């Protein structure tokens, strides 16, 4: 296939920018347009819940590229104008301001939008965190030294709790799981995370359901649990997960499910690709559909999509990777941590908060988790790539009871 005359990327953040940059690196000289709903130049999200929320970084430091670097990209940047409709067959996008943009190839990189509680509408003091504007609004409220309740015991909720606690605030995390991030890390390492938060003074209310938010005079005053108990709060952060930003694609002609459904080349329809948090693609290595919500995926998938746009015909078969920073812990995960996995500590010691754990299922290593052991964690990643037999990889290591 010859290179297309024009490429339009919808979503000007990590995934979208990765596609644009990879296209140029590969020598693409055609017309390139990046369309973004936010008015900001492309910025990075992981620092938002950490350095930007805490105030250690000015928001501008989270920018992915300088203006000079973006100028070199030789792309038209259309910012502050959301796509509201796609005609996949005609490869035409309509924007909120009424623009009509056509291109030979369209890449969809619109990420996620946070879920909300029905009772939060119209209440001040209630926040979600996905964008830089939302981060700065939350930070402004945190500076008043409030009692904070974080609704949500996943990665974002626990990161925000750690940051707010680091600012000296009174913080409670409330969520349905037996341990924070238990669905991602498993109950054992989730238990280590619970201890980390408790040791730093975060109050954990786990295994409980939230019924609604309590307000007074238009301002939030507390979080009501299903038991009827009300946790007093001046600020509430709702971190109960996100959904793919695909509402605007209804009627586009694309298949939509838990994301934009793509083939193994990340192609959703002829000349239409998806990348990053919004893409649900077929992972040939696993033989199943998959959608990943992590930073590394946005870039790796972006590079594969760029190669495929230029005719390379490359399946996307990554070993997933994500990390989270909470208090003094850097937790890194390569591969998958299945809920039925056996877990073995192969380096270090959880009591010293420095260890590497392997996760095995069906006789093979499926994932590796490192806690403050960056180099060693990376070394064990190879077991995931090779699908090393569980018994060979683990040897005499200590199996963690489930
Ligand atoms: C607070 C926070 C902390 C995180 N921390 C980590 C971490 O520690 N480690 C990790 O691995 N991952 C982390 N992530 C996840 C990581 O940031 C995402 O996986 C990554 O940003 C995905 O990139 P993306 O380009 O697919 O989507 P996004 O970064 O969400 O970008 C999508 C862009 O599309 C725009 N958009 C949406 N709809 C439209 C539309 N209709 N028209 C035009 N533009 C549109 C959005 O405004 C946005 O700019 C974090 C995410 C958040 C929110």
From TrEMBL:
<dbReference type="GO" id="GO:0005737">
    <property type="term" value="C:cytoplasm"/>
</dbReference>
<dbReference type="GO" id="GO:0016651">
    <property type="term" value="F:oxidoreductase activity, acting on NAD(P)H"/>
</dbReference>
<dbReference type="InterPro" id="IPR036188">
    <property type="entry name" value="FAD/NAD-bd_sf"/>
</dbReference>
<feature type="domain" description="Reductase C-terminal">
    <location>
        <begin position="321"/>
        <end position="389"/>
    </location>
</feature>
<dbReference type="InterPro" id="IPR028202">
    <property type="entry name" value="Reductase_C"/>
</dbReference>
<dbReference type="Pfam" id="PF14759">
    <property type="entry name" value="Reductase_C"/>
</dbReference>
<dbReference type="Pfam" id="PF07992">
    <property type="entry name" value="Pyr_redox_2"/>
</dbReference>
<dbReference type="InterPro" id="IPR016156">
    <property type="entry name" value="FAD/NAD-linked_Rdtase_dimer_sf"/>
</dbReference>
<feature type="domain" description="FAD/NAD(P)-binding">
    <location>
        <begin position="6"/>
        <end position="302"/>
    </location>
</feature>
<protein>
    <submittedName>
        <fullName>NAD(P)/FAD-dependent oxidoreductase</fullName>
    </submittedName>
</protein>
<keyword id="KW-0560">Oxidoreductase</keyword>
<dbReference type="InterPro" id="IPR050446">
    <property type="entry name" value="FAD-oxidoreductase/Apoptosis"/>
</dbReference>
<keyword id="KW-0274">FAD</keyword>
<dbReference type="InterPro" id="IPR023753">
    <property type="entry name" value="FAD/NAD-binding_dom"/>
</dbReference>
<keyword id="KW-0285">Flavoprotein</keyword>
């Amino acid at each position: 296939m010859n290179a297309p005359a024009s490429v339009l990327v919808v979503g000007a953040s990590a995934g979208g920018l990765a596609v644009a940059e990879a296209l140029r690196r590969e020598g693409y000289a055609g017309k390139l347009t990046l369309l973004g709903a936010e008015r900001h130049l492309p910025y990075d999200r992981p620092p938002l819940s950490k350095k930007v929320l805490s105030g250690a970084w000015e928001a501008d430091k989270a920018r992915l590229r300088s203006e000079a670097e973006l100028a070199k990209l030789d792309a038209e940047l259309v910012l502050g104008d959301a796509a509201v409709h796609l005609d996949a067959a005609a490869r035409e996008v309509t924007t909120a301001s009424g623009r009509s943009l056509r291109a030979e190839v369209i890449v969809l990189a619109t990420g996620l939008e946070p879920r909300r509680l029905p009772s939060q509408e119209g209440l001040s003091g209630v926040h979600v965190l996905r964008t830089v504007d939302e981060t700065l609004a939350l930070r402004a409220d945190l500076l008043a030294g409030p009692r904070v309740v974080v609704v949500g015991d996943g990665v974002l909720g626990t990161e925000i709790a750690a940051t707010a606690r680091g600012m000296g605030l009174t913080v409670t995390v409330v969520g349905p799981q037996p341990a924070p991030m238990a669905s991602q890390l498993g109950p054992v390492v989730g238990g280590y995370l619970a201890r980390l938060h408790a040791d730093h003074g975060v109050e954990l209310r786990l295994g409980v359901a939230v019924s609604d938010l309590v307000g007074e005079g238009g301002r939030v005053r507390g979080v009501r649990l299903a038991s009827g108990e009300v946790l007093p709060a001046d600020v509430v952060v709702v971190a109960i997960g996100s959904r793919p930003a695909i509402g605007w694609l209804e009627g586009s002609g694309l298949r939509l499910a838990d994301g934009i459904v793509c083939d193994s080349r990340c192609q959703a329809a002829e000349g239409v690709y998806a990348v990053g948090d919004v893409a649900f693609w077929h992972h040939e290595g696993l033989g199943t559909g998959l959608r990943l919500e992590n930073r590394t995926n946005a870039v790796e998938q972006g590079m594969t999509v760029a190669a495929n746009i230029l005719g390379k015909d490359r399946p996307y078969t990554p070993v997933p990777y994500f990390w989270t920073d909470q208090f003094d812990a850097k937790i890194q995960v390569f591969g998958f941590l299945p809920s039925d996995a056996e877990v073995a500590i192969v380096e270090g010691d959880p009591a010293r908060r420095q260890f590497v754990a392997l996760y095995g299922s069906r006789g093979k290593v499926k994932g590796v988790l490192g806690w403050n052991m960056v180099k060693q964690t990376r070394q064990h990643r190879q077991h995931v790539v090779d699908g090393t037999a569980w018994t060979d990889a683990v040897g005499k290591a200590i199996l963690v009871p489930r």
